[in-house]
Amino acid sequence: MGHFVDFPEALPYSRGRCPAVGTIHIKGEKKVIQRTIKALLAVAAVLLLTGFGPGAPVFNLMQQPIPPGPAVNIENVQKAIMRAGITLGWQMAPRGPGHVEGVLNIRKHQAVIDITFDDKQYTVMYRTSTNLDYDEKARTIHSNYNGWIKNLQKGILAQVTTL
């Protein structure tokens, strides 16, 4: 990778000789290392800036299938959805047959979703949020929201699979 030259013991340490190894870096290698570090820092800065952009498209789950099973009915599906949400920290409240409202509060952030379902499928839709940089026109939101919904999707699937 780098270029090293052995020098006899007679050379003074002030010329860059490393007493432990007995080698010295060729002039210019320091500049190559500095340029490489600067390039890596520039790439890291670009990644950080694009990662904290205006937001990600809102992730809704549309007509997710519920696997058939002997105990699959609308009441058990509701219980499974509520268990999945509560396990992940959501406050889940039934709002009528085939409808559950989910609210997730994390520090100063809040997400509110509507989950509609029957015994064959369920849908999770964004309703509102606080401090998640939701842009109604662009339909974008802080990317953490989408992660929460994906986790909820996995939780619901795990719960309804056991019915």
Kindly describe this structure.
This protein is of the alpha+beta class and 163 residues long. The chain folds into two domains: 48 residues; 106 residues, 2-Layer Sandwich (TATA-Binding Protein), CATH 3.30.310. Helix content is 34%, strand content 29%. It is built from three helices and nine strands, in the order E-E-H-E-E-H-E-E-E-E-E-H. The strands form three sheets. The protein has a five-stranded antiparallel sheet with strand order 4-8-7-6-5, covered by helices on one side. A two-stranded antiparallel ribbon has the order 1-2. Strands 3-9 form a two-stranded antiparallel sheet. Strand 6 and strand 7 form a beta hairpin. Helix 2 packs across helix 3. The N and C termini lie far apart (59 Å). The model has no long low-confidence stretch (mean pLDDT 84).
The proportion of strand residues reads 25-35%
**Helicity, in percent?**
25-40%
Profile the largest sheet.
Answer: 5 strands, antiparallel
Gyration radius (Cα, Å) is 28 Å
Would you identify the CATH architecture of the largest domain?
2-Layer Sandwich
Order of neighbouring strands in the sheet with most strands: 4-8-7-6-5
Question: Shape, please?
Answer: elongated
User: Averaging pLDDT over every residue, what do you get?
Assistant: 84
The CATH topology of the largest domain comes to: TATA-Binding Protein
Query: Which CATH class of the largest domain applies here?
Result: Alpha Beta
Give a topology summary.
Elements: E1 4-6, E2 23-25, H1 29-51, E3 56-57, E4 61-65, H2 74-87, E5 91-96, E6 99-106, E7 109-117, E8 121-130, E9 140-141, H3 143-161
Antiparallel strand pairs: 1-2, 3-9, 4-8, 5-6, 6-7, 7-8
